[in-house]
C-alpha cells in the first residue's frame, strides 16, 4: 500500500476506474476462468488508459481555467512540495479525474457500447473468447427482443421471451435460462399447438432438458414491424415461425 498522500492518490485513480471497467465488462461476457494475474493486469491497463483519457479532458478544462489549473511539471518533479502547497486544488482535481475516469470506464464497458464496437470492427459475438453456443445466439443482436423456443428432451415444447441465461463458457447441462412474458407450453405427445400458460409470468429451464432451441430476433418496438428480423437455431431444418408462439406447432 502507498505510504504517502501522493502515492495514495495515484493508487486510487489508477485502480478504481480499471476495477469498475473490469467488473462492468465481465458482467456481459462469457464467464471464463481467469488467473489473478490476468485480472490484475486488465484492471491496471484499463485504469491507465482511462486516466489518460480523463487527463486529456482535464487538459481542456485547465486551458479554459488557467488560474485554477494544476502545474503538471511541478507536480511530477516535486509532488510532496506541490501537494503541501496546494492540497485543496490537488485533491479537488484528483476527485474530478477519478469521477471522469470511473464514469468513462462504466460507459466504455457497457453492453451496447461493446456491441457498437463489434459492429464497427465487423466482429460478431462468435469472435468472443470462451463464447458458448448460447452466447453466440443471444448476443448477436443485443438491441432487439429475443424469442426462444425450447424443444425438450421429453418431446415437449416451451417458449417465451428471453429474460436471462447462464454466461458460463463451458457447455454443460447445469446451465439454465429463464423466459418471461407470454409463456407457451406443449406437453410430450400432444400434437396441438403450444398453449399459453395462464398466470405464469416467467419460467426457468435447465440446459440438460433442452434437445435443441430456436432463436427469433424480433423487430424492435419502435420499428412497427411484426415479423422477425432473423432466426437462428441449434438444429438443422427448423423453419422460421411467422408467430413465435406457434414455433412448437
TrEMBL record:
Organism of derivation: Saccharothrix espanaensis (strain ATCC 51144 / DSM 44229 / JCM 9112 / NBRC 15066 / NRRL 15764)
Record key words, sorted = Membrane, Transmembrane, Transmembrane helix
List, as start-end ranges, the regions of compositional bias called Polar residues.
230-242
Please give the Pfam families that the UniProt record associates with this protein.
DUF6338
- Give the residue spans that cross the bilayer: 6-22, 43-65, 90-110
This protein's record includes keyword Protein biosynthesis:
no
Instruction: State the InterPro entries in the record.
Output: DUF6338
What are the start and end residues of every segment in region (Disordered)? 229-249
What is the protein's given name? Answer: Putative membrane protein
Amino acid at each position: 500500500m502507498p505510504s504517502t498522500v501522493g502515492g495514495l492518490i495515484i493508487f486510487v485513480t489508477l485502480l478504481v476506474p480499471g476495477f469498475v471497467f473490469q467488473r462492468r465488462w465481465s458482467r456481459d461476457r462469457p464467464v471464463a476462468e481467469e488467473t489473478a494475474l490476468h485480472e490484475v493486469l486488465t484492471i491496471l491497463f484499463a485504469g491507465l488508459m482511462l486516466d489518460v483519457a480523463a487527463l486529456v479532458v482535464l487538459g481542456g478544462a485547465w486551458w479554459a481555467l488557467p488560474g485554477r489549473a494544476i502545474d503538471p511539471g511541478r507536480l511530477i518533479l516535486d509532488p510532496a512540495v506541490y501537494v503541501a502547497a496546494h492540497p485543496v486544488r490537488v485533491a479537488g482535481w484528483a476527485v474530478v479525474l477519478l469521477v471522469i475516469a470511473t464514469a468513462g470506464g462504466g460507459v466504455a464497458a457497457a453492453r451496447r457500447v461493446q456491441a457498437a464496437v463489434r459492429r464497427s470492427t465487423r466482429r460478431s459475438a462468435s469472435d468472443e473468447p470462451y463464447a458458448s453456443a448460447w452466447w453466440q445466439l443471444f448476443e448477436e443482436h443485443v438491441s432487439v427482443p429475443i424469442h426462444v423456443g425450447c424443444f425438450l428432451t421429453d418431446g415437449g415444447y416451451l417458449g417465451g421471451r428471453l429474460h436471462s441465461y447462464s454466461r458460463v463458457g463451458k457447455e454443460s447441462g447445469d446451465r439454465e435460462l429463464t423466459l418471461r412474458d407470454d409463456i407457451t407450453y406443449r406437453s410430450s405427445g400432444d400434437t396441438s399447438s403450444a398453449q399459453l400458460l395462464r398466470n405464469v409470468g416467467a419460467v426457468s429451464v435447465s440446459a440438460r432438458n433442452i434437445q435443441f432451441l430456436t432463436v427469433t430476433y424480433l423487430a424492435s418496438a419502435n420499428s412497427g414491424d411484426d415479423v422477425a428480423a432473423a432466426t437462428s437455431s441449434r438444429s438443422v431444418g427448423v423453419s422460421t415461425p411467422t408467430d413465435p408462439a406457434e414455433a412448437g406447432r
